[in-house]
Each structure stands twice: as structure tokens, then as C-alpha cells.
Amino acid sequence: MGSLGWQFRSASIPVESEASALALSEQQREMLHLRRQLLGLLRDGGWFATVLFSVVQLVQVVLPALTALATAAVVNSVGSTSSGSTSRVVVPLVLLASTLIVAQVLSAIQLPAMLVVQSRIDVAYRERLADLTSRSETITVLEQPAVQDLIATANAEPSTWIEKTPGQGATSQLMLMVRYVGLVSSALVLVRFSWWLVPLLVLPAFAYRYLALRQWLNHFRIWARGISHHRRYQYWSKLSFAPAEGKEIRVFGLDDWISGTGQNHSLTHMRPVWEDDYRAARAKWLQSVLLFVPLVIAFLTVCIQTEHGRSSLATETVVLTAAWATFQAVGYTFDSIAVQGVAPVMKAYDNLTAALAGTRQTEADAPALTRTPTLAFEQVGFRYPATERDILKSLDLEIRPGELLALVGMNGAGKSTMTKLLAGLYEPTSGTIRADGRDIAEIGYTAWRRELAIVFQDFVRYPLSARENVALGAHIDQDVLDSAAREAGFDEVLDRLPKGWDTPLSKEIAGGVDLSGGQWQQVVLTRAIYAIKRGAKILVLDEPTAHLDVRTEFEVFERLTRLARDATVILISHRLSTVRQADRIVLLENGRIAESGSHEELMSRGGDYAAMFTIQAERFQSGYDDRVEEGELL
In this predicted model, which residue has the larger pLDDT, 558 or 579? Predict the structure, then answer.
């Protein structure tokens, strides 16, 4: 976890000075805030499951005291029962048996109830986290390294035993509080017979707990210190079994090297941990003294009193049972360890909330556009955060409704950046982007994005069915879906899928298949065209056919040309033979528009576009195929 060190400060805070006392006070406030947060999460566990779990825990912690009293009642009744009479033993025996049966029943209920509460809390927590990160108006803040670290930590996906989820932390905090109820109930039983037994047993029990917690926190700190080596070991271990990498490992004989590298990282991480285990084992004598000496004193004292008639066998039974229950209630430390383990998660969530404050979207009141708008980039400049290079420089561009516009240029010219700005993923450093004269930021990015259908160069391949990959949660109109597939040329692929639209597009799912890069691009094109057919006004395609052969690409763009009658299409492609079909071609160089016009106009000028087109045409005529391919379906 990105901030594991936060949870270990309590083990080393000095208290000699005023400054350190203030630091300790701050640490205590943070821990109190954490405990309140965890208890507040219990509402997400569902009232029935949470109440059931709480009652189970409460009854379990008071059962030792009740068992002690019931046992004493049995012993006392047996001792006072006259020969041949057993009536006085029946009720105490029934009570004792009831406590034992209840203990067994509650043990069976405890784990399922706890898991239900934990899972519900974790689901609700991750929904809030997803909402928090997805509601940012742009992705600028989300790409900051510090925010990325916070998201990774707050995501609460434990990869080691020291990392805990909010659900585990919440139930552990509840169990920790309830455990003190058990301590009080055992102490009340003890004080009924002799008050001095309470300090004799409780004080050493807390000392035992302090030493155990300090030992475990130190163990946490040592384990967390080597977490980078642990994760490297996990990477090398997974690499050994990965199907794709397995081919190269075997061909090049890398198995010994990979295995040795992983083992070295594992040993580097674990050697300090094992050394701490040895130290902890050698130091167990003090905890043993704190455990056994008070118990022995209490047991011997009561035994002596019983022998001399100053106490009864029943009293001795009660003291023996309640004394051990006292140490059980206080000495158990794993609840506290779980609370410490979730501390970085909750702190990261708080810091993430603060980092994203003021970036949340407000649902725009703007109605959907009634027609395809005129788009205008007005003196738009942009540079990515933490960089000094201007990607776009005072760019002016107007895109007419229903126009098929092609953006071309060398890598880094700013083509993909323009699509991200148009989508509102980033805001211009300077200038404005307008739709029919309105700043798209004023329209509201939520409302504005409903008008867009974008195919990014790094599109996502979802392990879902073909239908779900296209619709992505939208209402499914099968006729429109089939039409979009035909427009994108995906219908031929569908005919070859085992279950058609219902085929999972992942071999990790039963009955699923893998698609080639070109086939996946047809899926994504279908996704975008489906959005257009359902009302989107602007289609943006960033290298949408890089995996397709030239023939298929030409057919797709013929269809897109027809589609442009109803929507504006902005096309980015490295293949100039394809963009020649566009109504207008814009050549970007160093963040500015260098040339603009139809293919024929640009070729007649003999500029950079004409030179680039000529070079590509010569390469194509010589048989060069520039598509990126990954193997075919089936």
C-alpha cells in the first residue's frame, strides 16, 4: 500500500517534549477519526446482518462469564445435594448445557454473518470510491502521480496479509469494542468473590496486550519495508505461469533465470521478517510471565482458601473460568491489527476526497442538442500537466455540421490531444472550444459527452459478450445493433462467432473466443456507430482502422462517408490513401494547422501533405502492409 508507514508511527513516537506530545495527540485524533469511520461503515452491512453479527459477538463475549456462573452452580448443587436426590442439579446442568450449546451455535453463525457484513461494506465502499473518481469533470487531476497512488491505496485490494479492506476493519473495530464488554462481564464475576482478583488479572492482561501489539506493529513495519521486493517476487512468480510469456521462457531457456530472480526478491524481503520472528520467539518469556504468574497466584490463592474452608469449590471454579476469560478478552490482538491494516486505506480515501474536492461534475441542465452543431476551436492552446512543451498553440479550426474532417500529421503533432479536448477529458490551457457558439464547458461535460461517440486509439477490450461490448449498458435495440454491425463490417465476424452476439469475447470465459486486432477494431467501430444511430451528433475516430487491411478499411470508410450525412465525423489516420475521401483534410505540425483543404487541393499545392502522400503511395505499390495484426479469430 502506498502509505503503509502511516500506521506504524504509534510504535515510535517519543513523549518527552511538548512537540512530541502534540504529535501524539494528533496521532490519537487520527486514530479516533479512523475508529469512527469504521463504525460508520457498518450501516452498509445491512441492518439485519449487522445486528445479527453484533448480537452474536456480544453473546459470545459474555458467555465465558455465564459459563463460569453456570459451572459454579452445578458444582455447588452437586456438593449440597443429599444422597439419592438429583433434583437440585437439573436446573444448573440445563443452564450449563445451554451455554455450551449456544456457544457452538454462535460459532457456526459468526463467520457467515461476518463475511456477509464485510462483503456488503466493501461493495458499498468501492461504489463510493468509483463515484468519487469518475465524477471529476476532467481526467487532469486523476493523472497526477500522487492521486494515482492514493487511488491505488484506497482501492483496498489486499495483496498481502498486512493489508485489510474497509469491511474487515469495520467488523474488527466492532469486535474490539464488544471484547471489552466481555472483559467487564468477567471482571464483575471476579469482583463478586474478591475485588483484588480484578487488578491482579486485568493489569497484567493489558501489559500482555501492549507487548503483543508492539511486537505485531514492529512485525508490520518490517514486513511493509520490504513490500517492493514482495511485489517483484509476485511478478516473477506469475510470469513463470503466464501462457504468452511461457513460450519465450521455454524457447530462450529463461526458466532458471526467472526462478532465481524471483527467489532473490523473496529472500531479500523475508530474511528480516524471519529474524524478527526469531527475536519475537525469544522474547515470549516476558509475555508468558505476564500470562501465567497472575493466573497461578489467583488459582493458588483460591485453592488454599477452598482447602481451609474459607471458599467453596464452586467459587474456585468461577475464578478459574473467569480469570482465563479475562486474558482471552484483553490478550487477543488481531482485531487491533486489522484496524491498523485498514488505516492506510481510509487515510488515502480521505486524502483523495480532499484532492478531488471542487472537481466534481454538476449535472448540466442543458438539453440534448437538437441538431449537429458547428464546432469551433478558438485560439486553443494546451500543454499536459508537469510538462513545458505546448502541444497545441493558438489553434483555430471550424468544423461544419455533417462534415467528414480528417486530421493528419506526424506523431506528437497534437491530433489525439484535440480529440481529448473535444471530449472534455482535459480543458484547454488557453482558448475555447465552442458548439454553435456555446463553450462546451458551459454546456456541462456530462451533457456534452452524450453528443459524442469516440473511438480512441487505445480502446478497451471488455471481457463481455459481443452485444455487451457494443451496447455498454445502453438500451439495446437489436435492429439498430445489427445495422451498426453492418456499417462497421462486423457482421461477417458475428457470423463466425459460436453464439453470435451472445459470444463472450474472452477465452477466460467458458465458450468465449479471442478476436484479432482488426476484429476488435470492428467491435469498437460498431460501438461508436451504434451511439450515432441512437442520437450522438459527433463521431471521432482516432486511428480506427490501424489493424485493418486496406480493402476492409476502404469499405469501412465508404460507409462512414454515408454516415457523415447525419453526423460530423472527425477522422485521425496515418493512412493518407484513406483520408483522401474526407471533405477536408487538416495537416497539423507542431501544434498548429499547416495545411487545410481537400485531397486534390493539397496535392496541387505540392506541400508537406503531397510529399507524405507520395511516399506512402510508393511504399504501398511496393507491397508494404502497415497494419498491426495479432492473429485471426478461430
Answer: 579
Provide the β-strand partners of residue 398.
376
Point out which residues pair with 592 in neighbouring strands. 589
For residues 43 and 49, give the distance between their C-alpha atoms in angstroms, rounded to a whole number.
10
* Cβ proximity of 134 and 182 under 8 Å: no
* β partners of residue 409: 588
Which single residue is written with the C-alpha cell 437538437?
370
Look up residue 476 and give its DSSP letter. P
Amino acid at 182: G
Q: How far apart are CA 258 and CA 482, in angstroms?
A: 48
Q: Are 377 and 41 in contact (CB under 8 A)?
A: no
Nearest partner of 194 among 78, 71, 322, 62, judged by Cα? 322
Q: What is the pTM of this model?
A: 0.74
pLDDT tens digits, 412-456:
888 989 999 999 999 999 999 999 999 998 888 888 888 888 888
CA separation for the pair 594, 613 (Å, rounded)? 15
Report helix, strand or coil for 431: strand
Q: Which residue has the cell 508492539?
A: 214
Separation CA 89–CA 76 (nearest Å): 9
Q: With beta carbons less than 8 A apart as the criterion, state whether 575 and 411 touch.
A: no
Please provide the average confidence, as pLDDT, over all residues in the chain: 82
Tell me the pLDDT tens digit for each residue of 174-219: 998 888 888 888 888 788 777 888 888 888 888 888 888 888 888 8
Angle of helix 197-225 relative to helix 227-241, nearest 10 degrees?
60
C-alpha cell read off for 406:
480528417
- State the CB neighbour count (10 A cutoff) for residue 565: 10
Report the distance separating Cα 300 and Cα 293, nearest Å.
10
Of the candidates 613, 593, 591, the one whose C-alpha atom is nearest the C-alpha of residue 602 is 613
- H/E stretch holding 392 reads strand 392-399
Dist. CA 574–CA 570, nearest whole Å: 14
At 95 the pLDDT is 81
Domains and CATH numbers, the chain: 4-355 (1.20.1560.10), 402-409+445-621 (3.40.50.300)
Q: Which residues contact residue 153 at a Cβ distance below 8 angstroms, ignoring those fewer than 6 apart?
A: 1, 2, 3, 344, 345, 348
34-89 confidence digits (pLDDT tens): 999 999 999 999 999 999 999 998 888 888 777 777 777 777 776 665 554 556 67
Whether the CB-CB separation of 560 and 404 falls below 8 Å is answered with: yes
Sign, CA torsion 291/296/299/305: negative
